[in-house]
């Protein structure tokens, strides 16, 4: 019995209905106890059932999207393992009791799939908050990063060990390394270095039998699949081994707000940004001010992996229209650029990156697109107009591709969006108070702007970025949707790689134990 319903039955004075849930909790804990050969105190310490007073706090801790805060589809039990054996036990006990499992690293899933299930069935949630150590090895320029570590913790640890190393991943410090790399991971250095997932050299993965694999024992197929192809469809990532990249001691960041002539410059940007020197990343953020004034704002934000002189010379050669002069530029260290991108001041102590509480938490919806030919000015202007339709925070984030992204083949890892893309767009809408009506209004806005953009973006398939998970694209009904139905969204995220992902899935997890609303399906449908 799902605990949301339990509450209702309690009110109806039918506590008997809740007995099912309680006995499930008991059964599950008993199974853990047997598996772990442990004492009940150590199990009590890492489990939170719906009746536990800490349950709401633990569930809520890293859940970013408040859209689901009152959902009745929450886990009946949460585990916060301290050791891999407890994750293994959670997998085996879930399997034994016919339960589903969800794993959470940083909680930034755009549809909340790490802490919710849309299906009316009890499930177990494993939160990796305590599995987060990071070991930097400068001798071979790699690091072992446990899945529950955040990007902020990784960046901090790297910078504390070296001034000339960094890692190319997203700019939001609270994002978990577990989920981020499982979906690719793009950030401000992708034109120079590619994605986070392009830098994985080994991994520890726990499979459906509770066995811990490294790259060698999981095999090259599975190792391919987990780097951007939804690792959660294959098992639980314990840790990634990543290759660090070299960064210069000084980088140049600049921010250039635009008022007049924004459309002309952004239109021009589309022809230039993907062809610039790969040390240079200039993105566009177009947004609604988010207040009553409903004003349009656009900003060019850039990072250049070098000093200002060279930056200015390059800009003067390739994009003089932007008139980026020294006044817009700041020379700082790479870790300071991370702080700036995260919305901190460059002089803030880098320890702020370790803060897991200062986060994006709000109600939001994200969609994504890829652009292969420049959008005409009229098309851009129509999008700006839509940004201003409602009194809300809404962004169009346009991130240039090209450079290193062009050099990696579409099938190197499951993330297929490489050569031929000028830039990606993320549509983000965010609101701060929830009611059914506001929620509906903004979700509809997201659909409207997505529909409006149809003629301007990639086609057949209209590609999307898996890290910006979007259940509007389709979902696994009962989690056992047929391969052909799942291909509708699967081809958008993974293009020609989707079939191979399903083949590997079918071999590695033939019972479809690891599944969710958008997990990789089996080639042949299996009853759930
Ligand atoms: C504000 C915001 C900004 C973002 N910016 C970017 C960006 O710039 N670039 C980018 O690429 N992405 C970006 N994302 C998307 C983000 O990278 C993905 O949502 C990513 O999956 C989050 O990882 P997580 O561990 O924090 O999330 P979680 O919610 O913990 O997990 C996400 C998914 O991965 C699975 N998972 C988590 N941990 C594991 C594990 N250890 N083993 C197996 N499966 C696991 C979960 O079950 C879930 O399906 C952003 C998201 C938000 C909310
Ligand atoms: C359980 O947690 C308590 C309080 O944090 C601690 O004192 C105790 O040692 C823990 N017990 C085990 C077996 O881990
Ligand atoms: C969740 O429910 C509580 C209690 O009914 C309510 O006060 C709160 O506003 C709701 N939150 C959301 C986000 O709907
Ligand atoms: C940062 O580096 C210093 C010196 O190497 C070390 O003593 C310290 O423990 C490190 N801090 C963290 C949080 O890793
Ligand atoms: C920009 O280029 C023009 C012409 O190539 C040159 O005259 C000018 O000095 C350059 N400006 C800077 C700041 O480099
Ligand atoms: C899990 O165990 C079963 C039964 O022993 C075996 O057939 C299967 O190959 C194992 N799965 C993996 C992923 O090793
Ligand atoms: C999918 O799962 C549902 C619910 O468990 C079940 O009723 C249905 O028969 C399954 N469908 C297929 C095609 O296996």
From TrEMBL:
SUPFAM superfamilies: FAD-binding/transporter-associated domain-like (SSF56176)
Segments forming domain FAD-binding PCMH-type: 71-247
Pfam families: BBE, FAD_binding_4
Coiled coil (UniProt feature): none
Protein keywords: FAD, Flavoprotein, Glycoprotein, Oxidoreductase, Signal
Signal peptide: 1-19
Gene3D superfamilies, A to Z: 3.30.465.10, 3.40.462.20, Uridine Diphospho-n-acetylenolpyruvylglucosamine Reductase, domain 2 (3.30.43.10)
Annotated GO MF terms: FAD binding; oxidoreductase activity
Cofactor: FAD
Family statement drawn from the similarity comment of this UniProt entry: Belongs to the oxygen-dependent FAD-linked oxidoreductase family.
Protein name: FAD-binding PCMH-type domain-containing protein
Protein source organism: Glycine max
Gene that this polypeptide is encoded by: LOC100777594
